[in-house]
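Exercise 7b. C-alpha cells:
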C-alpha cells in the first residue's frame, strides 16, 4: 500500500473526488479516474482534446498525464489492499 496516498489531507482528497466526478460527467471517463489520467490515456490514441490538455498540463508538470495514470493506479491499489484486509469480501 502506498503511504503517500494514505497521507493526502482531507482537502486534497476532496479535490481528487471532484476531479473524478467531473471526469465522468463532462468527459465520459471511468469512475475513479481523474481528468488528467483520462487525457493521458486518450492522448496515446490521438484524441484531439486529450492531446491538447496533456500538452497544456506539461507546462505545469512534465509527463503530467502519465504521472496522473500512475497516481490513479496507486489509489486503486490502496483501495484494493484496504478491501482485501477488511475480511468482508465474499469467498
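Sequence design result:
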Amino acid at each position: 500500500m502506498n503511504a503517500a496516498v494514505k497521507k493526502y489531507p482531507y482537502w486534497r482528497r476532496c479535490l481528487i473526488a471532484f476531479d473524478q466526478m467531473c471526469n465522468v460527467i463532462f468527459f465520459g471517463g471511468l469512475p475513479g479516474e481523474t481528468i488528467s489520467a483520462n487525457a493521458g490515456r486518450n492522448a496515446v490514441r490521438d484524441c484531439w482534446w486529450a492531446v491538447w490538455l496533456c500538452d497544456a498540463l506539461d507546462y505545469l508538470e512534465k509527463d503530467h498525464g502519465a504521472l496522473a495514470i500512475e497516481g490513479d493506479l496507486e489509489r486503486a491499489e490502496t483501495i484494493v489492499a484496504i478491501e482485501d484486509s477488511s475480511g468482508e469480501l465474499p469467498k
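Instructor comment: The mean pLDDT is 89. Residues 3-85 form one domain.
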